[in-house]
Amino acid sequence: MLKVTEEPSRYRHLEKMTIEQITANINREDQLVALAVEKALPDLNALIQAVVDKLRQGGRLFYLGAGSGGRLSVLDVIEMPTTYGVPKGLLNAVLAGGADRLVEALEEKEDDMEDGWRQLQELQIGNIDIVIGISASGTTPFVLAGLKECRKHGITTGCIVSNPGSPIAAEVDFPVEVITGPEFISGSTRMKCGTAQKMIFDMISTTTMIQLGRVEDNRMVNVALINNKIIDRAVKMLMSKAGIQDYEAAKKLLIAQGSVKKALDHLSERI
C-alpha cells in the first residue's frame, strides 16, 4: 500500500536552514492541511451523522488510537464535560498503553493486537456505541485489530487516516481519509497529520454537541462553572440572554441553578 505519510520531505538539508526559513516552510506546509480536510468533508459529515445518531440513541463515542493522534483524542474527550456539560463517559479515548499513561508515550504498545479490544470490553462496549479508529498510517495494529473485533460484534466504526487505501479504512463503516502529504520532517506525522486530526476532532465534537442541543445560538449555555473566569463569562451570558441588568442577581441565579441553560429554563417556567 502507498504510504504518503512516509514519503521523503519536499525539503532538503533542514539543518542548513535559518530559523526564518524553517518556520516559513512549516507554515507553507500547514496551509495545505485545511485544504486536505476540506476534500474529506463529505466522508467526515457522514461519520459525524453516525456519531450523532448513536449518541441520540443513548450510545457513546470511543476514539481508538495510538501515537500523536491517540493523544490528541484524549485532549478532545476531557474537554467535553466542562465545555458542554455532558456526563463523563459520553465521549471516551482508548489509547495504546492506556490513557492514564498518556505522558509516557508508550509507542511500543501500538503493536499490541489485543489491548484495544480488551480496553473496549472493560468499558462495556456495545452495538449502541460507535468507535472511531485514529491512525495516520492507516495500519496501526492496535487500532486495526480493535476495529476488526468491533466489526465482528456488530459495532459501528469509523476512522481518521492519512494514507489512501489503508487496511483500517477498508475495515470500517465510515472511513475518513485526510491526505496531507509528506511531512516537513520525513515521517514525522505529529506535524501535518496531527494538525489535521486536531481539526477533525474539533469538528466531530463541536458539531455533535451542537446537534445534541448543548449550544444555543453561538453560546456554551451548558458550560460547567469550574472557575471564576468561566463563572464571570456565564454570568454575562445569562445577563445578555435573559435581559438581566444586575450582575450579582444574575450570578446568584446562575450559581443556584448550575448553568446558564438551567437558569434560563428556570426563568421561563416562572413566566
Structural class by sheet pairing and helices: alpha/beta
Radius of gyration: 21 Å
Element-level helix/strand string: HEHEHEHEHEHHHH
Number of helices: 9
* Percentage of residues assigned to helices: 40-55%
What distance separates the N and C termini? Answer: 64 Å
Descriptive report:
The structure is a single chain. This protein is 51% helix and 10% strand. It has a 5-stranded parallel β-sheet with strand order 2-1-3-4-5, with helices on both faces. The termini are far apart. The protein has 9 helices and 5 strands. It has helices at 19-56, 67-84, 115-122, 141-152, 167-171, 192-211, 228-242, 247-257, 260-270; strands spanning 61-65, 91-95, 130-135, 156-161, 174-177. By secondary structure, it is α/β, with parallel strands linked by helices. Helix 5 links the parallel strand 4 (156-161) and strand 5.
Walk me through the topology.
Elements: H1 19-56, E1 61-65, H2 67-84, E2 91-95, H3 115-122, E3 130-135, H4 141-152, E4 156-161, H5 167-171, E5 174-177, H6 192-211, H7 228-242, H8 247-257, H9 260-270
Parallel strand pairs: 1-2, 1-3, 3-4, 4-5
Helix pairs in contact: 1-6, 2-6, 3-4, 7-8, 7-9, 8-9
Essential attributes:
271 residues; alpha/beta; 9 helices; 5 strands; 10% strand
